[in-house]
Amino acid sequence: MGYYRSGFTEIIGVDIKPQPRYPFTFVQGDALKYLAEHGKEFDFIHASPPCQAFTLARVIHGREHPDLLAPTRDLLDSIGKLYVIENVPNSPMRKDVELCGSLFGLRIRRHRIFETSVRMFSLLPDCDHTKPIVSVFGHGGHIYHGVADWRDAMGIDWMKRDELSQAIPPAYTEWIGRRLLEYGVGA
To answer: Higher model confidence: residue 3 or residue 157?
Structure first.
């Protein structure tokens, strides 16, 4: 949604799981396989490999998850198109930019790291963690009232609880999309 709000008009999402509320063209399938077959058709690729291999929850719950970040980056490099990869702060990524909901006036502290194939981001102000937040993953934070609060805090009104727990606010990709358009992508 953020890329759409920034001015991109043709958006295709790919995920192995059904996404019945995804608001744009959606392809259900293995994202790496789709990328290998169709990646060269796009001007720009945004990748969000599963983050579970790098989260604190993995340690707490004692579960192992595959690292799909490195294969995603390798495939994107081989395609040769402009890309952005998004993941959690503990992931093994170059920190070209880190975004937080507080940077956009949202009531959420969901830090995400973005790495890009071409350095094009301007500096952002520091996060403001002085205001109350809504915890979208169900623990921590200062306030928890339910899914309606989660939707409001993230600026997402079309997702259900489990989808929200995996999402990033559209404000993040809207900011990135505007930088891409300034850079000449999609123009």
So the answer is: 3
Radius of gyration of the chain (CA): 16
Number of domains comprising the chain: 1
Cα 113 to Cα 99: distance, rounded to the nearest angstrom? 7
Q: Are 82 and 45 in contact (CB under 8 A)?
A: yes
| Residue 11 scores a pLDDT above 90 | yes
Q: Phi-psi bin for 105: left (phi > 0), alpha (psi -120 to 50), beta?
A: left
C-alpha distance from residue 159 to each of 99, 153, 166, 168, 169 (Å): 21, 12, 10, 11, 11
Structure letter (DSSP) for residue 41: G
Residue ranges making up the domain that contains 148: 2-183
Quote the mean pLDDT of the chain.
Answer: 83
